[in-house]
Design brief:
- By secondary structure, the chain is of the alpha/beta class.
- Helices cover about 35% and strands about 20% of the residues.
- The strands form two sheets. Strands 1, 2, 3, 4, 7, 8, 9, 10, 11, 12, 13 and 14 form a twelve-stranded mixed sheet that branches. Strands 5-6 form a two-stranded antiparallel sheet.
- Helix 1 packs across helix 7 and helix 5 crosses helix 13.
- The longest helix is centred in the middle third of the chain and has 15 residues.
- The chain is globular, with a radius of gyration of 19 Å.
- Keywords: Periplasm, Signal, Transport.
- InterPro entries: Sperm_putr-bd.
- Its main location: periplasm.
């Protein structure tokens, strides 16, 4: 996901900063998060109560975060997307939240909690907080609208060496499944998997680079290195804020994807447990929605919070419903996900 301050792009374009170090502040709470979510406007209530931001440590993708935590890295809360929660539970890395300490939990749209992976008779394991879309970002000066009317722009020889895909197995498989007619990745047959893998190998031939985070994607597009990318909202909003002619096609005929993310309570965290709840409560406050939208371009899971931003242009352009198929990146079979991850590594290596 996640780096959207307007100063970021100028740093990126000069090559001054691509990696984000840990940001130390309140030593009693360590948040393991995507770079960019350390923006105070998203959790201002925490600062108001505790006098400073939490300490942040950053990662670039969900699998990297899981591997680091499974290897012993210590933090208090982490911010995985929904399809990762089962891995954290199975590995014994997380414990349930006490939702009696989270008054706004009741305002979370029930659709984001509709899974026994998130909530069961043992408790609530996941607090969904934010959601977005994955779709085609493109240089509107160089790419005609008709070219991005189909996801096959990613295999069009016209764009050989001019495309970029995320270095994220979940997102590239969402793309490949959509392009081959699959909109539900919880029921993938072997034939559908093979068809998607074949399509992804064709798409690989056009890839100039796989981006690790939206800051890198923004660099690739703003520098002119690529014209078409499979993108989250973040990079699009960053480029728009800098006046770059970026389009965001969420209604290609084969569709686009959606995802949502949230926070897990890490077992044996080194910090203050009460402050973990302060952080979640700040995140779920209605005023957090505007900070989230302006900084990251994402929607909020709280219906009360979303009500405060429903008329914002960024909601209407980047988050509203579209007349096209949607593949929702909800929890899927862990074995299937591992199969996709392994196959993606082969594809990137040219096999």
């Amino acid at each position: 996901m996640k780096l959207l301050r307007s100063s970021a792009l100028s740093l990126i374009l000069t090559g001054a900063a691509l990696a984000m170090p840990a940001h130390a502040a309140d030593s009693q709470l360590t948040v393991f998060d995507w770079a960019g979510f350390e923006e105070p406007s998203i959790f201002q209530g925490y600062i108001d109560k505790n006098g400073d931001s939490p300490t942040f440590a950053f990662y670039g993708d969900d699998d990297e975060a899981y591997q680091k935590l499974a290897s012993g890295f210590k933090a208090d809360v982490a911010h995985p997307c929904s399809q990762m929660v089962s891995k954290y539970r199975d590995a014994g890395l997380i414990e349930p939240w006490d939702v009696s300490k989270i008054p706004a939990f009741a305002t979370i749209d029930p659709k984001f909690l509709d899974s026994p992976i998130f909530k069961d008779d043992k408790g609530v394991w996941y607090i969904p907080t934010d959601w977005g879309a994955t779709a085609i970002a493109y240089n509107a000066d160089n790419v005609p609208a008709e070219d991005v009317a189909s996801l096959n722009v990613f295999i069009d020889p016209k764009y050989q060496g001019r495309t970029s895909l995320p270095d994220s197995a979940d997102d590239v498989w969402a793309l490949a499944y959509l392009a081959t007619g699959v909109t539900d990745w919880t029921k993938v047959t072997d034939e559908q998997f093979t068809a998607a893998a074949d399509w992804l190998r064709k798409a690989h031939q056009n890839v100039a680079a796989y981006w690790a985070d939206p800051s890198e994607q923004a660099q690739l597009m703003a520098s002119g290195a690529v014209d078409v990318a499979w993108s989250w909202n973040d990079g699009v909003v960053l480029l728009q804020n800098e006046g770059f002619p970026v389009g965001f096609q969420r209604a290609a005929k084969e569709g686009s994807s959606t995802f949502f993310c949230g926070f897990v309570n890490l077992k044996d965290g080194p910090g203050n447990e009460d402050k973990a709840y302060d952080f979640i409560n700040a995140w779920l406050a209605p005023e957090a929605a505007k900070g989230l939208l302006d900084t990251i371009g994402y929607g909020h899971t709280s219906t009360v919070a979303m009500e405060t931003i429903k008329d914002e242009p960024a909601v209407k352009e980047g988050l509203s419903a579209v007349d096209a198929p949607i593949l929702a990146q909800t929890p899927n079979d862990p074995a299937q996900r591992e199969r996709q991850l392994a196959e993606f590594e082969k594809i990137k290596a040219g096999f």
